[in-house]
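Support reply, case 0932

Customer input (verbatim):
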Amino acid sequence: MNTAALAVWAFVVSTVFAMGGVGSAIVLVPSMEWMGVPFLIAKTTGLFTNTLAMLSSTLKNIRHGKLDYRFSLPIVITSMAGGALGAYSSRLFPKTAVMIVFAVFLLYSGTVLTFFHPKRGRTRGGTIGGASIGALAGFLGGLLGVGGGAVLSPSLIMLGHEPKKVATTTAVVVFFSSLISFLTYSGMGGFSVNLALVVALPALAGGWIGSHLMHTRLSPGDVRRLLGGVIYLMAAKILLSVAGVL
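Our regenerated output:
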């Protein structure tokens, strides 16, 4: 495993994904697994990275007055419960099945982010809808070791919420759901301090920069298309790997 390359990659993808408030573990976990890191340790490290990077983004969002606390709180609560359950349940599923679910998860997220255009000013679902999506996103994020942002973000956009509001909400939700999932995985013995530092410190810097760019340089459409494209590439790589092509 080339630790220097992994550190650079962690910085790049964390910068990109922080622009949409989505934790970079969705890319880092399969990347580490392809580099030879055991899957359990890759998931735990990805969740640790999400926790730090999304903390960085959330603090920046709070500083700029961008976080809607009333909207976010119910989603945070249900996503934490779902995250703990998903992480605990991961031991019940074989790795190949988890990777296929991962790919489907990515294809759904990429399709919504790239092609779905919500009508302005029309939102659906309310508090119950958001909390329900939070529970599902937390569960899948805990199961896969990715925090759930790639389910939460496109789902809230589908309900008609403004993309930058969704990005700030997703960041705080992913922080808490990743934290509880990380603690659950750590209890299973899947944590490497050295690897976590190699990945998490560059990701922390990337999360801060990405959040700044999201608020100052990018339109909501730019955010959606950028994330959608990266997610599609990852889904294709996972499916090809499962099929034995790569």
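We compared this against your earlier run and they match. Two observations from our side: The chain has one domain: 3-242. The chain is about 80% helix and 0% strand. Please reopen the case if you see a mismatch on your end.
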